[in-house]
Structures are given as structure tokens and as C-alpha cells.
Write a structure and sequence with these properties.
The protein starts with a helix and ends with a helix. It is globular, with a radius of gyration of 19 Å. The chain has a two-stranded antiparallel ribbon with strand order 1-2. By secondary structure, it is mainly α.
Length: 183
Amino acid sequence: MSREVLLALFPYVISALATAVVGIAALKRRHDVSEVEIFAIYSFLLVIMIVAFILELVATRLVIKMFWDDIQWIPAIFASVVFFVFSCRYTQIETEGIRRLYRWLFAAAGASIILVYTNGLHGLTRQMPYLEVPFDAYPFSILVYSYPAGFWILSAFAYLVTFSCFILLIRHIIRTAKHHRWH
């Protein structure tokens, strides 16, 4: 690999390593905090997504780039659901209804992945893929495709689940801050 390619990949490699270190550090604390194992799984899903992105970047053929792009969907979709499980457990709002919601969210994530991997049959998640080199100085060709309805639905699913996590965690911070001010 050329120096230019290595420099372009450097931030992604550092990101993957840092996220892996966070996951490993979390696992070392699993005996202290029960939710930390779920957070470690979340971290490792992000590592998989970053590594798949790196492999997509360095791939030179369209079919290989599409393969690594598809691989990125698995941790992207499941990470949002795992983060939701973590958020619920951390904020201590686990009820039977929430556990049922976990099952539905994991089932929806699995169905989403099936949709991605059967795209050749229906074209709902990616259409008209091709490789493009934006300008001469950029060291990678880029996978470009149009975004049909399935892509937007899957993206909305992941973002809504993640946004709900932020709401749960922020609400928890506000409530615990109020509780600590009274003491």
C-alpha cells in the first residue's frame, strides 16, 4: 500500500483500535457492573463495522466493495438494538413489555439483514451500484448507488432506535441529578 493510502486509512484504524480497547476495558469490568457486557458487545459491533468499512475502502472491484458494504449493515442495524438493550438496563426500566420489545427489535433487525442480503431479488436497499473516483488525489474508488425506499426504512429504524436510547439516557441523567441535589 502506498503512503497516501496508509495515511487515508490511519484515522479509521485508530478508531477501530480505540473502540476495541473500550470494549476490552468494559469486559474487564463485567464483574463490577452488570450492563457492561452489553456495552462491550456494542463496542465490538462498532469495531466490525469500522473494519468492514476499511476493507470496503481498499477493495478495488465493485463486487468486493458491495460485499463489505453489506457486511457493514449487520453491526449497524444490530448495534442500535444492542444499544437500546444497554440503555434500558442501565436506566433500570426493564419490564416484561420492554423484554418483548427487545425480541421485536431483534426480529426486525434480523429481517432487515435478510432484506439487505436478498437485495438482488428486489432492489429495495441498493440500486444501480457503480465505482467512482471523485478526484485524482483521492486514493480510493467509492461505491456509489441510489437509495431506494428500503434503505431509508432501514436507516430510519436504526436512527429511531438510537435516538430513543439517547432520550432514555438523558432522562436518566436528569432524574439522577435531581435525586442527588436533594441529598
